[in-house]
Description:
Blueprint: H1 5-11, E1 12-19, E2 23-30, E3 35-42, H2 48-65, E4 69-77, E5 80-82, E6 87-91, E7 96-99, H3 101-108, E8 113-117, H4 118-129, E9 138-142, E10 150-153, E11 156-157, H5 188-192, H6 194-205, H7 211-216, H8 222-246, E12 250-254, H9 262-275, E13 283-286, H10 293-305, H11 311-317
Helix pairs in contact: 4-10, 6-8, 8-9
Amino acid sequence: xxxxxxxxxxxxxxxxxxxxxxxxxxxxxxxxxxxxxxxxxxxxxxxxxxxxxxxxxxxxxxxxxxxxxxxxxxxxxxxxxxxxxxxxxxxxxxxxxxxxxxxxxxxxxxxxxxxxxxxxxxxxxxxxxxxxxxxxxxxxxxxxxxxxxxxxxxxxxxxxxxxxxxxxxxxxxxxxxxxxxxxxxxxxxxxxxxxxxxxxxxxxxxxxxxxxxxxxxxxxxxxxxxxxxxxxxxxxxxxxxxxxxxxxxxxxxxxxxxxxxxxxxxxxxxxxxxxxxxxxxxxxxxxxxxxxxxxxxxxxxxxxxxxxxxxxxxxxxxxxxxxx
Length: 324
């Protein structure tokens, strides 16, 4: 029996992997927007590409069990990424320099493969399906252990000459400030990231708490209040720089920090407007895709690799049954 086009599209899935410094998060995503299977594992200190290939193989086995057809795969990664060549020039938390990721994966897989930058892929997802849908000029800033930015204009994402555009976490905010792991002093992510807030709280209070626990203590713990105030003021200063340099229509805050909700959004919005003397601040919103944005972006890149540029529109039309 000959399959119809609709039946064929239902069978088609891609492997989408968000490669992070702590975890590999992979999913099978269908052309109709369904997450068919998900697998997560810790990122090993060594043998990362081998672990990636093993994870992709497991997901492809899942596809066979669900009678689905894998048509492409995409892996998104942090660091300086040459997306056209598929080379990760530098990724500190993976200990990678000049890794030909695309060539390594494509040599072992018999399906088309795409390689992308994790935050730019998340920006693609937010622009097609999330908080920045319909906005031509926006900035997405996921804040977790560290922070970076997707800088998107009407012509597409800004990658930069080295593929390193968007390293907002390493903009020096405090002259002669605290030492960053990158070797600079006073970097924004020293004060704003989850790791930075936890470290600064421990140094001040003499006890260790996660950034989530610190937020939960706001209003009852003076040390938590002080560290959080430093963080929101520093972030607002960084957003003021982004505003004056790029004039985004919307700034989207994502990552683990976005779970703080109004505790983050209200003071940052207030401090940002205070820092802009002659113009209004752009709207600052929380990501609607959260920690899944990178994975969803990877799925979009994989479908684009095989010419399926329309899948996001179908996902929006079928939003009630999509399970991304």
